[in-house]
Amino acid sequence: MNFWNFFWLLFVAFAFIAYLSILLSVVRDIFRDDKHSGLWKAVWFLFLVFVPFLTALVYLIIHSRDMAEHQAKAQVNAQAEVQDYIRRAAGRNAAGELAEAAQLLKDGVLSEAEFAQLKAKVLADAS
């Protein structure tokens, strides 16, 4: 295999991987889109199956802005889920529990004795 055959093989492999990446991005965006009904999604998908290159190109031209918005919304949702998981996994800290207990005392839900007992328990657990 000479240099130009190897170079051509590298170029074709790169183009094929880029094409698959675009195709998968379009499929992901079709099913992520809330604006279109299931029928439109099925039509786009069928065209992607039978005329993939042209359909992907047309979809990118028509829906490029929507694709960016869908991706940004998905990233925000993923970040929120990660933050929520971290908060749940880390548990509550002593300051947060004391602040909540103080608010309950202020609202009249807890008595002074209950607040003192809860405060002692939280401080004992923290140390």
From TrEMBL:
Domain of life: Bacteria
Keyword Plastid on entry: no
Record domain Cardiolipin synthase N-terminal: where: 25-62
Main location class: membrane
Stated name of the protein: Phospholipase_D-nuclease N-terminal
InterPro entries assigned to the protein according to its UniProt record, in alphabetical order: CLS_N
Topology relative to the membrane: Multi-pass membrane protein
Species per Swiss-Prot/TrEMBL record: Sanguibacter gelidistatuariae
